[in-house]
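The material for today's practical consists of a large collection of protein records. A record pairs a protein's sequence with a compact description of its fold. Instead of coordinates, the fold is spelled out as a row of discrete tokens. We will come back to this pairing of sequence and fold again and again. Here is such a record, shown just as it appears in the course material.
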Amino acid sequence: MEARPVPADGGMMAATVLVVEDERKLRDFIRSYLERAGFTVLSTGSGAEAISMAMAAAPDLVVLDLGLPDVPGETVARELRTMSAVPILMLTAKAAEEDRIRGLELGADDYVTKPFSPRELTLRVQAILRRGGAAAGDDGVASYGGGDLMIDEPRRIVTVRGAPVALTPTEWGILGTLATVPGRVYSRFELINKVRGYEFEGYERTVDSHVKNLRRKIEEDPASPRIILTVLGGGYRLGLTRDG
């Protein structure tokens, strides 16, 4: 395990990023760019060690290579998802769309295909963390569907049928966008741009994967959803009305 804390402005500690990449040269390269951006960086080339480090250090984000030598990155992602909703940015050499979609369906927030620009990687890390820790508004708690869905914007808590649900930053962004105007149809292109803040290759399949994960968490029957509805040829809309 390698760790070098980097103080953020004002003496506070920066957000912590765990980099899991077995190629030492690339791992150090990524670490260098992230540290220059002000992050605290933990790094390892082992999937098994990554799981242990995530449990011990509770990083703010994980950069995860899928091609690890000991434990497949997909397995690491599944383990991380059982522990928390920590944002995951996947690194993959697999160019096929289906491979990337499978990664997203495991709960990843974003992916970067090798070879990649370290500056782009850093910008994507920053974008994910901004989505997860954006300043709250003054609207307080919004209730939908007679209290079936509660969105506490100030504390960034979602409650479904009385039980809190842990969402990834991307899932939070999609649900929050749909809840802004209940019933309004949001196209996939609109959703990915509102949530990510930039155009994203393969955005249609990406949004579908995140919605699929979101439905697993908030719908009583994901196969017959009533909270997030699909509009054929249009996109998605919130199926609940706002209370009050």
In short: Residues 1-13, 134-139 have pLDDT under 50 and may be disordered. The CA atoms of residues 52 and 81 lie 13 Å apart. The radius of gyration is 18 Å.
